[in-house]
Amino acid sequence: MSWYLQRAGVDHVVLERSEAFHAWKHERWDAFTLVTPNFQCRLPEHPYDGEEPEGFMRREQILAWLDRFMEKLDPPLHEGVTVTRLRAGEDGGFVLQTDEGVLHAEQVVLCVGGYHRPWAPPAVERALPQGIHAVHSNAYRSPSALPDGAVLVVGTGQSGAQIAEDLHLEGRAVHLCLGDAPRVARRYRGKDVVTWLEEMGHYDLTITDHPEGNAARREANHYVTGRDGGRDLDLRAFAAQGMHLHGLLRRIDEDGVAHFDDDLAERLDAADATYDRINEAIDRYIEAQGLDVAEPPSRYTPVWTPPPGPPAPLDLRAAGVTSVVWCTGFRPDWSWVELPFLDDTGYPDHVRGVVEGVPGLHVLGLPWLHTWGSGRFAAIARDAEHLSAHVVTRASLAVAARAA
Fold it and tell me: Domains in the chain and their CATH numbers?
């Protein structure tokens, strides 16, 4: 947003409560990589500039790429400034209370994303036996940073599946509690699946045209990895290699025994069904376009299935579990924004980032703000350019009104 506002000559400041790229620097594990190919990294006049467009940047490479963009941008950035309250001004515009004083602005763009507070199931979290080390995914760094012993990983979104693999590759005993995230192949018929989906226009599908509508914003992302050049994440294969898979974590008793829903097979089957549906959609696209590419492989065959019978409870101490990694997502916190801009679900009520109910207020960087790529490097620049046009137009009208 600052890039486009600078080029339009709109006076603005960028407030950051910590430091630029804080989350990338301090809230990603050591082995973190992108899960989308590097070619989808597109900032304004700063596309991916490395030698592996089909590869997946590691955390330190991502930071270096972002630093190069920052050098080009040179924004009016104020780090270490926390906005504690945002309210409407008495004579129009907005008043921002910060820990450095009060600011007045004609317009505000909220670029804080939607992942504000790490969340874990409160009752289960409180029931963890004393002595078990617990961290959220944003605080996990590496297997060696955890106490020796088995690890309970709760959740199988992108973070949960990748962290479970990270621990598994280091030889740690892992108990993985599944969530409802689907999976996707890394490569299919000669190309990365993301490349196919981009060619098919999937990343241009808008939230208004999505078959599920706004409900798509609440769906978990597909798990896959870019580690070591990229590969599938097959939880069944992990189980065949000794990882312990469980259904949804339901409760932990006072004696430290964990209980799970009897839904492990159902969750694995649902993830595989999505995997197959995506591949079948690619098959249809290839056929419709008459493309001469590799023949489709055999349909996925499960390499492991859960044993019959109800799920056995897990005595955490007896199993040697010394750590828990919560990969159960985040919850938004808009409590500091004292403006009527949320819908009935607590999500900002906007149209492509324009909060029509509060003139002059905008949001940017939310998942599915406009398309699937909105919360990612793939389309953040496109969204910012579109939204900046609204900001610039409104700023120009304000200047004209003052001059009249």
Answer: 2-116+332-403 (3.50.50.60), 118-326 (no CATH)
